[in-house]
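Hey, quick one: can you model this chain's 3D structure?
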Amino acid sequence: MSIGTLTVVGLVVLAVLVWFFMRLRRQDVLTAMMEKRRAGARLVARAEYVEGLERMPVVLALTSDTFHYENGDLEASFELPRIDEVEYGNELATGKNLHEGEQVLRLRSHGATFEFVLPTGDSAKWQAVLPARQLGRANAANG
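Sure thing. Here's the predicted structure for all 143 residues.
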């Protein structure tokens, strides 16, 4: 093997190791966030926030008055009264189907839609603490 070939192979191996390290590091950050939120939340779980074609791993947490979603680069939340609609389904707003067992949690707030892909088995837990509702029915129930 020539030195050029060894260099290319070495760079590929290095790239794979860096990718693997970053993935493990992200998982550690999410685990730490879950532990931090667990004390004051009704439910804490991992999910994927969908924005366009991108799916980003996040931690979801539901407290008595707020829905949080965060990862190492993002920290966002909704006050529950500001969520107009809650839906669950097996298809993203883009029409793309999910993997077997995954469900989407879709929130609408003031005309904006936010989608979170829940892992297999978590949808029932979320539906129990954050039931599906539509704007008309939510307002009728509150008013």
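One thing worth noting: Confidence is low (pLDDT under 50) at residues 138-143.
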